[in-house]
Amino acid sequence: MPTAKPRLSQQLLAECAGTAALLCAVIGSGVMAERLAGGNTAVALLANTLATVWALYVLIETLGPVSGAHFNPLVTLVLWSKQPLAQRKPARAATLFIVFQLLGAVLGAWLAHAMFDLPILQTSAKLRTGSGQWLAEAVATAGLVLVILRAPAGKASALVASYIGAAYWFTASTSFANPAAVLGRMLSDSFAGIAPASAPGFVLAQCAGALAGLGLARLFETPVESTL
After folding, report:
1. Rounded to the nearest 5°, which phi and psi values hold at 201?
2. pLDDT average, residue stretch 182-208
3. In terms of Cα–Cα distance, which of 21, 33, 1 is closest to 192?
4. What residues have CB less than 8 Å from 135, skipping those under 6 apart?
5. How many CA atoms lie within 13 A of 81 on its CB side?
6. pTM of whole model > 0.85?
7. 188 near 109, Cβ under 8 Å?
8. How far apart are CA 138 and CA 127, in angstroms?
9. How far apart are CA 78 and CA 7, in angstroms?
10. Is the sign of the CA dihedral 179, 182, 186, 187 positive or negative?
11. How much of the chain, in percent, has pLDDT values that exceed 90?
12. Could you report the per-residue pLDDT of 14-65, keeping only the tens digit for each?
């Protein structure tokens, strides 16, 4: 008996809740790590990385069957370019996915602040700029898109989480790779934050990286052989 496909409202809720939980994990673990690391940035980053990886894996496993667990506007756009997200009005569905992801990112930042008794409304003062960081974001996003598109069935959650964990350390930017993450982290003056002035450069680099990742994935596609 075929399984009923989740309703669009359920998918949007999953995208909002998943993105909120992801940003809450990123920001909250950053706050906790900075408080406990005693000024050791490497230890703080390691703790932040592990919390993010574990949260991402769990969220993809639990919410993937509902919405695909995009949690990232660029992932939504890339997957929409490969296959419509809905049978009717696919562009509307993609737009709503992105709106709810951005809303979730904001809510996740606020939730993290509330749990740590920080001011709910704040913006980051942490500048992250320069050609090296922009290149890092392009590389991080290209790799993420490639992993998503090339992941064997049933293995995307582990591969995506593992890649993001690795990219935290091999990229100069600590691998945001997600415009929604930029928004949420822009609204948090914490270990994981990014200043509003630095956000446009990151997002533009991520867009370029997503296109590069999509192009690279297409190079690996196996041509469909004619049966004639």
Report:
1. -60, -40
2. 98
3. 33
4. 172, 205
5. 14
6. yes
7. yes
8. 18
9. 21
10. positive
11. 89
12. 999 999 999 999 999 999 999 999 999 999 999 999 999 999 999 999 999 9
